[in-house]
Amino acid sequence: MNRRELLSAMGVTGVAMTASASMARVADSVSTSQTPAAAGNKPILAMIAYPGMFPLDLVGPEAVFAGLGTHRVGLVWKSHTPVRSTSGLAIVPTMTFEEAEEAGPIDIIFVPGGTVGTLACMEDPQVLGFLRRHAPTASYVTSICTGSLVLGAAGLLDGYRATSHWVVRDRLTAFGATPVEARVVEDRNRVTGAGVTAGIDMALTLAARLVGENHAKALQLNIEYDPHPPFNAGTPQGAGREVVDHLSKVYAPFIDQVNVVVPRAAAKVLGS
Questions:
Q1: Which CATH number does 40-218+236-270 carry?
Q2: Domain spans of the chain?
Q3: Using omega within 30 degrees of 0 as the cis cutoff, is the peptide bond preceding 230 cis?
Q4: Rounded to two decimals, what is the model's pTM?
Q5: DSSP assignment of 69-91, as one string?
Q6: 82 within 8 A of 20, measured Cβ to Cβ
Q7: Which among 145, 184, 198, 216 is annotated as catalytic?
Q8: pLDDT of residue 246
Q9: Which tens digit of pLDDT belongs to each residue from 155-172?
Q10: What are the tens digits of pLDDT across the range 109-137?
Q11: DSSP 3-state helix, strand, coil percentages of the chain (rounded to 5)?
């Protein structure tokens, strides 16, 4: 049985099997809480796909979002030209900002994290303008890893609890947010995830809100998300001081840039 036959057996028909969504759309019948709209009328889940993002920040959640059946998942950027991730992986945007706005409504906003690419987004008028225009009417505004800094730079986390990658989580205070040390943080319609792999947790949490717990469980089973890491090193506490100190040194040049960009971006948002 090939991938298309598997999807058909699961109840998914008439779906274009693009490379970005090939991890499967779980059967709509799994969910008893919602009937998806016709494909052409579905609202957009806009995933910002920018140069310099961390690839797993995007493709992990996308593997979950692709199975919702309730939204058109768009990888949104300034053009359709492939963007290079931090590892050099080329990801092809499926919508420009203009195309997404014309195809709308933009119902869910998602921003992945990265390093210098994230900092560039924090001061990019086109990115920030898109987020600011659509956040007020979006059902959910979400991020993973350092993507929450971009939400902060757009003025979208002031007064909210939020999380981020551990190396920059405390910087969220500059944008009026309350940093929370947790894998996923929900505050009203803001849903933020911690570093990288927490994107899958965040996406499944959001899926449960959108299509019900049973459908979300099916999505989790579909990607066989049952992590058993070989080391207890996924948090600073588990990794230990020696590993934390080493990685902190690796991140030092990035943090130096963060310490320049965050106050500058915060001043524009909060007038501080």
A1: 3.40.50.880
A2: 40-218+236-270
A3: no
A4: 0.87
A5: SSSEEEEEESSSS-EE-TT--EE
A6: no
A7: 145
A8: 98
A9: 999 999 999 999 999 999
A10: 999 999 999 999 999 999 999 999 999 99
A11: 45, 15, 40
